[in-house]
Amino acid sequence: xxxxxxxxxxxxxxxxxxxxxxxxxxxxxxxxxxxxxxxxxxxxxxxxxxxxxxxxxxxxxxxxxxxxxxxxxxxxxxxxxxxxxxxxxxxxxxxxxxxxxxxxxxxxxxxxxxxxxxxxxxxxxxxxxxxxxxxxxxxxxxxxxxxxxxxxxxxxxxxxxxxxxxxxxxxxxxxxxxxxxxxxxxxxxxxxxxxxxxxxxxxxxxxxxxxxxxxxxxxxxxxxxxxxxxxxxxxxxxxxxxxxxxxxxxxxxxxxxxxxxxxxxxxxxxx
Length: 271
Fold this sequence. Notes:
The chain has 271 residues and is α+β, with helices and mostly antiparallel strands. The protein has helices spanning 17-20, 73-84, 91-99, 101-109, 122-126, 183-186, 192-206, 263-268, and strands at 2-8, 32-48, 51-67, 118-120, 131-143, 147-157, 165-174, 179-180, 224-226, 230-235, 248-253. It contains eight helices and eleven strands. A hairpin with a 4-residue loop joins strand 7 and strand 8 (179-180). The model is unreliable at 7-29 (pLDDT under 50).
């Protein structure tokens, strides 16, 4: 596993994710420290029902290791879950398990498959037609003195499936409030109908073409990305649209949702 340290003092917090990776500064109480962690692996199962089947897995993630003097275990636990799909384990165990996920899928499907498997370069395995693919990549999409937003992108394909699947999940964290920002603490309870009405109206405006979205009403808003001025509600394939439409993103102005926001959310978003 490759690890690269990134130090971000408060003076640099307004930089974008693409810019901050080239900046560094002295550590202090306000410093945010990230590690970029990456690894990949390829496997070959030489006789899987008579076929040679490959497994390719890769992760490349930005991982916060320090936010001033804060205890941010809740952030790390949530990030572990949306990145590797596990809870209650350390990064090394979670990442190693993820790299074997495609291989474990073959083992679960055929209990005659036995170790050892042949290890091959990731690119070799990834370029094959008969392959299980598990890729995950994360990036910082917003970093201000008040907010940290991390997006996690998944790509999965299992040999024999009609097509692969992509997914995009977001983690929003209030630096000044020391808390994760979720639908439960960002939006006032009892306002689901009003919030969904605004999201649905925005969806109709942003995706006017017939057949891009399902006719059924939107019923959830738990996965969202906070930007400097907006909420972007993100839906996976099949959630509110057919697979061919891909991942759906619906942008709603924070001001349009203001009356539904909690006091903590208004403070965190500096509205």
